[in-house]
Amino acid sequence: MAWSVALACASSGDPAGVFRPGLGPDPDPEAAARLARGLYPAATLTETGDTVLDFALWPYEDELFVGAFDRALLVCDRRLFGLDEDARRIADRTAAALPGARCGVLVLHSVISGCWFRWYEAGALRRDVFVTAEDGVVVDQGARLAAEAPFWKALDDLGGDGPDGARDVPLPFDQEEFGLALAEAHMFGRGIAERGDDGFLPLELPLRRFKLS
If I label 43, which of 16, 17, 122, 143 is the partner at 20 to 30 A Cα–Cα? Predict the structure, then answer.
């Protein structure tokens, strides 16, 4: 499956314990609106209803989706795909919005064939990695996360001292699998499209929809 995702997900506590049946209380529309206004203080925001994460993963350019719970925050914003200063601002603000939380930011694009992942702990950036199928490893900063190990092993096994130099072009692993593995281990505690035996499916998480102008 080809995924396009522009998602920031923060949680207080182990994700597997947060994202499960009973996550609540029910989404807080006022908290969602406050976060949206904090991300875009100069914009006009119009609330246009509710939806679920499955629909919100890749918003239109003039949209923003926010889910606010007692122990979790989700933001879907295509501007994260810019991988620029504005994208980093959105990621940083979301990571700091839930005190003491851990936050993962995942950007996947099925056409560009790239994965950008940022990891925060208590608002501090700990990991920043960007890989593409064509350009290999573009950014690799901070301590690598446990879920990355199998993918880096695939790269390390190729060696980097031969006549061709570093062997990361083309990337020797699937960048989408890389991003989804990080989301499973560090963002949701389960696959984003995995309905567990408990009946919980991350793609069904409710979010508030905003129009930007």
Answer: 122
pLDDT < 70: residue spans in the chain: 1, 24-25, 158-166
**For residues 17 and 23, what is the distance between their CA atoms, to the nearest angstrom?**
9
Structure tokens at 63: 């949209």
Question: How far is it, in rounded angstroms, from Cα 32 to Cα 40?
Answer: 12
Burial (Cβ within 10 Å: 0-12, 13-18, ≥19) of residue 191: middle
CA gap 30, 105 in Å, rounded: 23
The answer to whether the bond into 29 is cis (omega within 30° of 0) is no
> Which helix or strand (DSSP H or E) is residue 37 part of?
helix 29-39
Query: How far apart (Å, rounded) are the C-alpha atoms in residues 210 and 177?
Result: 30
pLDDT in tens, 152-205: 887 777 664 433 445 778 888 899 999 999 999 999 999 999 998 899 999 999
- In angstroms, the Cα distances linking 25 to 17, 22, 97, 157, 177 are 15, 8, 17, 47, 32
Give the pLDDT of residue 161.
40
Task: Report which of 110, 145, 130 is spatially closest to residue 5, judged by C-alpha positions.
Answer: 110
